[in-house]
Amino acid sequence: MMRAIVTGYSSGIGQAIAELLENNSYEVVRLKSRLNEKKTLEKELKEELKKADIHLLINCAGVGVFKPHEEISIDKIQELIDVNLTAPIILSNLCLRSLKKTKGHIINISSIEATRHSKFSALYTATKAGLRNFSLALFEELRRSDVKVTNINPDLTKTNFFDEFNFEPSENKQAYLNPENIAKQVLEIIEFDGVITDITLRPQRLEIKKK
């Protein structure tokens, strides 16, 4: 059975991906360590890799903040960097020897904000653009080892990501993506005979409502 590590599996896009993979004969490893607890995360992951190699790493966990940069606390700045950028880089580092054995695949869930420059998104954009560029550079590094690397940039998606914000996608079904459809796209990327290195997923309409 193919083994996959999926972060952010408890809700939203990560949950949809984990469930779809399990329905397609994958064993999904759900790490319990918090992504900003680096030593604990490293220890848990190494224990998992002793059991068996993995074929797929999907870095899906993410946090956001959208407000004037001077209003963001130092702790929040560090949290976004840790979860959105540092953790995927560390997990990729720890999993690469295993992925090289299985000729596996790394998929990083970035954001539409990695491709543009939006007001009140400087910090979030920095972390997601960093993840996107990490993915693209890592693909070039790993081409000869046959490890695939894909970066996905989803636009507005109907999840609890917006719970703490003062805005969210409108109720118009053409104005947001569903986690289940993103998960289906992930499966198609995995099964593609080649490498999709970078893909942006967008709803047809742009409609945001304030809470």
UniProtKB/TrEMBL annotation:
Naturally occurring in which organism (per UniProt): Halarcobacter mediterraneus
Coiled-coil boundaries: 28-55
Gene3D superfamilies reported in the protein's UniProt record: NAD(P)-binding Rossmann-like Domain (3.40.50.720)
Pfam families to which the protein is assigned, alphabetical: adh_short
Keyword terms, alphabetized: Coiled coil
Lineage: Bacteria, Pseudomonadati, Campylobacterota, Epsilonproteobacteria, Campylobacterales
Membership in a protein family: Belongs to the short-chain dehydrogenases/reductases (SDR) family.
Cited PANTHER family: 3-OXOACYL-(ACYL-CARRIER-PROTEIN) REDUCTASE (PTHR42879), 3-OXOACYL-[ACYL-CARRIER-PROTEIN] REDUCTASE FABG (PTHR42879:SF2)
Protein name: Short-chain dehydrogenase
